[in-house]
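Re: the pair you flagged

First of the two:
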Amino acid sequence: MVRLPLAAAALIPLALFSAGCSRNRDLPNTLAPSRMTAIGVNTYLWRAAIDTLSFAPLITADSNGGVIVTDWYASPSTPGERVKLTVSILDQELRADALRVAALRQVNQGGQWVDAPVSAATVQKLEDIILTRARDIRRTTVGG
């Protein structure tokens, strides 16, 4: 029977153990987790919605309930028209169905504000802008 020298016998378990630790586990993942919830709703969607609606004055911004309501906003380029927006974040995941946007539109007719229809494409475009911004925030979270 051949006996290994004591030093070789001690190095074999050490080599096996260190092989399992050779990967660098401190490297970041390619994307940050989609479920980021330091508040009651998805953090990426919340930040993106606040950023996107920053042009209008806010009435309510409830991060636990996930509801953002703007006051009436009239663009300087179209002062006879105003909009009021409500964004609801419905989930803690970063998903398209976790976001709902509702818009009210009024036009000024003879000094009176009268309700007017809002195009579904307008609401969809606003949702797309918020979702794109949320994905961008998620990507930059990893990059630092």
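Second of the two:
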Amino acid sequence: MTRFVVDAGAALQLAGSRAQPAAGHQLLAPTLLRSQVLSSMHEAVHRGELAAPEARARLAHVATLKIRLLGDGVLRDTAWKVADELGWVSTYQAEYVALTRLQADFLVTLDADLARAVEGVVPTAPFDALLDPTA
């Protein structure tokens, strides 16, 4: 089984495409994923990029994805350390990196800046690695 940490962008990409991860993949995310996904969809509606019903449908689809949400003290402590190591003021992205370091094989993000920032820190995988190649 391959374990992937998915950030909000990757989860929403799965939702937008109505795709499901390939069998044998386990998805993980910090608990803050819920709030980030909600905020991203609300912001998209506010900017006029999505109609509210589509945004709500994507939120509903994210809720159906089998993503194990974690947010224990070890994760928070590791996220703090990761943020310090990378010189980040915020720990939001550091939670994804910390979870990858602690429990996953790869981080999947659509954020090119984040992917560059974590080169050599944690392994990353492209979004397509989540999908069943035969589907």
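DSSP finds six helices and four strands in the chain.

-B.
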